[in-house]
User: Fold these one by one.
Assistant:
Number 1:
Amino acid sequence: MGAMHLFGLTGGIASGKSTVGARFRARGIPVIDADEVARAVVAKGTEGLAAVVAAFGGRVLADDGSLDRKVLGNLVFADPNARATLNGITHPRVAVETAARQEALAAAGHPLACYEAALLIELGLADAFRPLVVVDLPRPIQEERLCERDGIDRAEASRRIDAQATPKDRRAAADFLLTNIGPREELLADADATLNAITDRLGLPRQPAVV
Ligand code: ADP
């Protein structure tokens, strides 16, 4: 099995991470999405979901026995202690599942993959995923895009943004900083240039362009 390099992609909520991650994918780079992994470890019928119910009670379950993410989200966004409890359940399970996916990609012969996560610097993981790509944007644009994407009001958007790392911490940890203030096409061009720089830096062939 060849060694595989996993580089990081992070940024605040609604910064444009998924847009960049989708671009990397379109250029043939597998992306392990921490959000998706986090959903998988508490999917219906998992031991992870049982642990969440043990901590928060049956009120976090929907009628069909799956996790009611909205109820849980409201509980943890409003309460830092509840958030810490939930993170204590999910983060170790996410780490195990991420490692399993990483091994599967390495076994499949991929030399390079991306780990996309909103919380990465916050968890002290920046150095585990070098080079680290950070997507950043000014707060007013972030609030606007978040409100529009998730259909929430400005106060709720502000609360969710405040629950994350400060942009200053993120910028300090970045090897590549993408500032997403222009049109989408500009972000995609920056993502392309960044991916080329990463493969160059690692001595890997460049990935084909998206046509
Ligand atoms: P994240 O994954 O960081 O939460 P997304 O990639 O989902 O962020 O982007 C947040 C929202 O902003 C999405 O609705 C996305 O389509 C939109 N968006 C991202 N970049 C731009 C841009 N440069 N111009 C306009 N809208 C954008």
Number 2:
Amino acid sequence: MEYAIPAFEIPTIEVVGQSSRFPVHRIYCVGRNYAAHAREMGSDPKREPPCFFTKPADAIVANGEKVPYPRGTENLHHEVELVVAIGKEVTNISTENAKDVIFGYAVGNDLTRRDLQAQAKKLGQPWDVAKAFDQSAPITAIHPVEKVGHLEKGEIWLKVNGDMQQHGYIEDMVWSIPEVIDALSKLFSLVPGDLIFTGTPAGVGSISPGDEIEGYVEGLDILKHTIV
Ligand code: MN
């Protein structure tokens, strides 16, 4: 294949226990998937349909790498999330069978320009500039299901400079992981390489250059990055 311009590389993520890597196709994200966080953002956590948005595949940042403070914002927020990595092609799957398409799990940070998101909400505009910016998706290596099993309960937390800022339990998701996959697969063809950021617990807040972020989901490892 010859390209008219220099071709870009497929973004990839390390897989725990393997030398082969996980190629990233798309990044889907779920909004307001923990009731306490929905309330802190001023919405009613009652079960309205799940809210989805996306980030580009090349927004990923490997665990341990520095994350530049993005331009265009004065209020960058952290959102620690359990990330699901899809390993099979699927459309229109049922909640009962949804787990079969999961390749593995990771810990991610859905970095958010909160000021631009608030403005977009107020003006009824899309969230892209708030969510889908460069290096907005730090993520750990992917832990394959064959190693860690399926994650259905356990702690999720995020610390800034060692202080606990977010804390919750993944069993408190408004939409469970199978329900999220079910709903997404009715809107999009999910394919191997897709990632789903499954929402953040309460306690989101501002971060600044120099801050050291640690994010954790029980059963996985710690996502670490410094904002520079
Ligand atoms: Mn989020």
Number 3:
Amino acid sequence: MASTLAPAATSPAEAAALLDKPLLDLVFEAAAVHREHHDPNRIQCAQLLNVKTGGCPEDCGYCSQSAHHSTGLERERLLGVDEVLEDARRAKADGADRFCMGAAWREVKDGPEFDRVCEMVREVKDLGLETCVTLGMLNDAQAAKLKDAGLDYYNHNLDTGRSHYDEVTSTRTYDERLDTLQRVREAGLSVCCGGILGLGEGREARAELLAELASMDPQPESVPINDLVPIEGTPMEQNERVDWTELVRVIAAARVLMPRAYVRLSAGRTELSEEAQALCFLAGANSIFVGESLLTTPNPSPGSDAALFAKLDLEPLVSG
Ligand code: SAM
Ligand code: DTB
Ligand code: SF4
């Protein structure tokens, strides 16, 4: 569907022009685009589970799970299928529609652990949930195996613009990320790809990231916008916080440039007021993570999210 509608490539200058607009003009434009393509009162709700915690060989400067930083996080082995299913059943009962499983791996390695992840996908899918995993880099055969197991989405973020990427990670390249995304696409999986604000980048790098995402053909179906959750012991612990209006700008620009995608207001919601979240929804965010925690950090409580939905007359989106 999306492939026939893919627009011409977006340049960083075009994305920057959007980000630089007067804020309320930008929000108004994005809200109009949003309403053409989506029900503005419905928000897709996904729940995360870290199925393999910590000890990651990559050195992403923001991440609690990198073995390069002393964050005090305890490493855990890959969870068992039953533990995952128990969590997935609870997520479904609590109203989640998509279940996302993360593993702190640099790349997928063939063997019993990968087979177990495929089994997790198969059984979570059987519960009637949409499935998503994020496992690092993978090859064609592994992508095909995941597709075969019933995987809907693969999450693999570009995180920031190409010019800023070296400041974020030294153990892999931007092109390796793009190659993995290409493989995911060729296996027939839906792509979940976005970034983080607060990595010391400026608007220029944000514009580059948005242009990169919007120029993919087809565009990603899901675009998570994370606000850095500062983690003690990481090189980015003391980074300056990004103002909430900048988050609204990036969400709005993502909505204008990728009209059909789920734009996901992801990590960082615990630090956002209800008012700021409401503006993000108006500007086109239509997906959030629900549940007590993200991967290793807290998320707003289900009670506070239910209260926010009630105040804004929002309903969870049920796919299918
Ligand atoms: N290892 C896999 C990978 O790198 O693709 C997946 C796991 S990683 C935790 C998934 C995404 O979560 C990252 O690409 C990043 O955008 C986001 N993330 C990780 N730590 C974060 C933090 N402290 N604050 C905000 N977002 C974060
Ligand atoms: C994404 O872009 N954000 C999620 C999901 N994809 C896997 C992860 C957010 C992680 C936030 C930090 C943590 O909890 O460790
Ligand atoms: Fe590893 Fe992913 Fe964390 Fe980078 S973001 S250190 S690849 S778990």
Number 4:
Amino acid sequence: MPIGTDIEQAAALLRQGEAVAIPTETVYGLAANAFNEVAVLKIFQAKQRPSFDPLIVHVHSRMQVEQLAASLPAGAEALMARFWPGPLTIILPKTDMVPDLVTSGLDTVAVRMPVHPMALKLLAALEFPLAAPSANPFGYVSPTTAQHVADQLGSKIPYILDGGPCAVGVESTIIGWGAETERWTLYREGGTAKEPIESVIGPLRIADKSPLPVSPGMLESHYAPGKPVIIGNITSLMKAHAGKRCGVVSFTNNFGAAHNEVLSAAGDINEAARHLFAALRRLDASDAALILAEVFPGGGLGAAINDRLLRASAKR
Ligand code: TXA
Ligand code: MG
């Protein structure tokens, strides 16, 4: 099993143009040299990711941002100062150094500076930034432990850098400046709550459901376990599915189903986000016939939790 904590080994493989799984505070990423198209292609192959879905480029310094971004829209400086390093991805106009494969041919690039110490150490050891989507087969639940990555991609990649369980547990929030709308747009709810972002740059516009590849992270079915997911009032759903073995994802209450995943008995929404994806994976691996999930309170990271559950429940 290619799991370890050797940053130098991960760096050496990345320099050779390999794709390596790395920890971040949000979810594990499958990383490659963002300036090497052949290396980046390995990410798409391992994940079976369609090439219309662009990647996020990870940096450790503002100097690297200058290599990637042709210009910074108003407000970008303030956002980076306030939220980096951390789970906020900012979409910026790209330079010619960024290969088309990374951005799916868009003229913008998604950039983020992770706060996970191992990710930062690895990035600082390298001469290039790292393109990395979540390290899961396309469309499936994101990995929040090294073992999650090994379970699905272990045979396809040479190394998984183990940085422990992810502290945030849902992917980064993605925002971008729309030149046409002259507003900052929210493309994906995530690990940085909307409220503090709005306190820096004012009200966010919510991205329209637009055709690909303008907002590809907005694919309707995503983050999805193999089993059907149904969202609603758990008590009524359990009555409606009384004959079946149910797995339940809830915030604080144990509903006494066949399998119960209470994400935070203490009612802490950050803890709930941290536990969400591992809980979905456990229920998917259990003998439950279907997964029932309740709607979480919408403030803070609750918005990201509800977004992931909604996509996990979408028709495939
Ligand atoms: O927390 C995260 O964001 C994790 C870790 C590994 O950093 N990464 C991640 O990547 O979740 P993933 O698999 O969601 O893929 C990146 C998403 C795409 O699906 C797309 O929605 C969005 O980022 N994206 C990337 N470049 C974009 C662009 N130029 N315009 C709009 N959206 C873009
Ligand atoms: Mg993903």
